[in-house]
Amino acid sequence: MASELLSRAEEVVVQPPLSQAVGYVVVVVIGLVIAFAMVLVTRLLKHTVGEDNKKTEMFMTANRSVNTGLTASAVVSSWLWSTAMLGSTLVGYVNGVSGPFWFAAGCSPMIVFFAVLGISCKRKIPEAHTLLEIVRIRYGTTAHIVYMFLCLVNNLFAVANMLLGASAAITAMTGMHIIAATFLLPVGVALYTFVGGIKATFLTDYMHTFTILIILCYFSVKAFTLEEVGSLGNLFELVKAAGARHPVPENEQGSYLTMTSKGGILFGILHICANFGLVIMDTSFFIKAFSASPQAVVPGYVVGGIAYFAIPWAMGTLASSVVLGLEHNPIFPTYPRRMTSTEVSNGLVLPYFAMTIAGKGGAAGILLITFMAVTSTLSAQVIAVSSIISFDIYRTYFKRSASDEDVIRWSHYGVIFFALFASAFSTMLHYVGVDLGWTLYMLGVLTCPGIFPTAFTILWRRQSKAAAIIAPLLGMITGIASWLGSAYALYGAVTIATTGQTVPCVWGTVASAFSPLVYSPIITLFKPENFDWADFRKERLAFEVSDTSSIISHRNSSVVRVNSELETQSPDEQVLLRRWGRIAAVWALATFLGHWVLWPLPMYASKYIFGKGFFAAWLVIAIIWLWGTLFIVGFYPLIDGRQQIWAVWQAIRDGRKKRGEAGAASTRSASGEQTPESVEEKQGKTG
């Protein structure tokens, strides 16, 4: 049967619906247009509200003044990888309705949990720019270098995962060479990040995420206008018939319409562990937390995390259901064959869904959202790595007295270097046979070892220096050994194919994540510390902050300067931050229990197969949640940032008025008329 599918796959080649020219226009031209637009916005903010990106605090942390709405939007954007849409539809196609749900449940809990770490950092070390500064101050140089390695590995594989999926999708849509797409995608990102820094990243994140959600919401409606789909009831029948034709061996009764899926729950375990590593070891999340005002960290991450849940759940379920249901229909791009394993692993379920329901327009939509998703998340990774190069390498080991100009210059070097290196690394992975599916499953093996030691660094004063250094390294060794060992034991060889299988990746990821939870306390028992959190404040980390860029925010009818966190925090402020910490902890626990335990696990145990009404309700709730996310990401930042928008508008209007008055005065002067100023001068001379 497999050989028959392969031979039929060779007979039916899916032609790209769009031309290569369209691919280059989107990737290069639109990328540069967005970049130059962000450059202009950056200059406008400098001249109107004094946000000077030549100052390090503005370039790296936006003067720690970003409001809740923009923080929530940036949080959603940070996780709105091309992988989130391509990967959720991939696991939906393979496992049925359980796949997209577990994908979403593997993202939201740790995003909300990060609010706990973010507000704790705000309270204990408010001047920090990166996670690695915290590690260095507490544990010294050796630990600093170890965690630098862990963070860079995390960033590198995260970007490779994004680029591999996005490049494959763009190539499928346009026929553009996959290597050209891999190298050209970071160009616009590098340009606007080079000039605008973190604030440009926030603003571009907002614009991209809003656009992506508009297109996804359009797809959620467009799918049901297709005659072959028609209604939720008809879609249910199509998916039910697909399960009868191609039953899933490890699902209850082989059905796609059940949460009782061994493949689904194994992916859920793997995904939540891997994503905890991706969040906690990604310095861009810390930078965005440091950039948010103290009052915005917790609500921004909580709102963003819960809103994000709908994107992989709704689109993954809808797109994979349509593809499974219409795969045998002549309107499907691969007809008369099914999708090959290579096409599925390259993340082409979503592109084929869009082509099926909307033809070339759908392909153009997927091309645009893939481009925007990958560039948006790339910008966060680029700024993260540039911060490591400028703060944690250059400022720490080469020039402790580095000025604003020095640090900004090295940040620029970091942006260019990482954009090129990540593209080259992704190209190497492509040529050795690695694709989106492989990186999606094995990512946690390398990203998870630092989860608990890093959290303990911020939350547990007893962890020793030796534990902080040794535990993550032992965890990585344990994870890699479990991953490769289980691949060999189960499949008899260690190859790209065997190491990309679900079970070895689950064993490796779980071992990598949880073994440091054992190693760290055991090592700490030999020589526990009692770290004084006040020691974090002994080292001056922040550069001079310009008062002109302070934004005034109103909260509880009182005026608070958002830059005040860089000054000595009063006892009342400490109490407020502790209260936010408790709120964050409650929300983190509630999100984990709700999204990962109380909702899905009883459904897994019940062996329930969805009926028509239940499937309709499942999908309707997901789509309503998706539209709610659109309004939160698209309009909440505008409402929350209305004061700064108004301030920018007033500054523009005042500037035009002054230029108009100056122009009128010069015109009257040229025509010989007496201007008010000339009259005053004459009266002064006469007096």
TrEMBL record:
Keywords: Membrane, Transmembrane, Transmembrane helix. The keyword Transmembrane applies. The chain crosses the membrane at residues 21-45, 66-94, 100-121, 142-164, 170-194, 265-287, 299-326, 363-389, 410-432, 438-460, 467-494, 506-526, 583-601, 613-636. It is found in: Membrane. The keyword Cell wall biogenesis/degradation does not apply. One of its GO terms (molecular function) is urea transmembrane transporter activity. Its main location: membrane. Belongs to the sodium:solute symporter (SSF) (TC 2.A.21) family. This is Urea active transporter. It comes from Paraphaeosphaeria sporulosa.
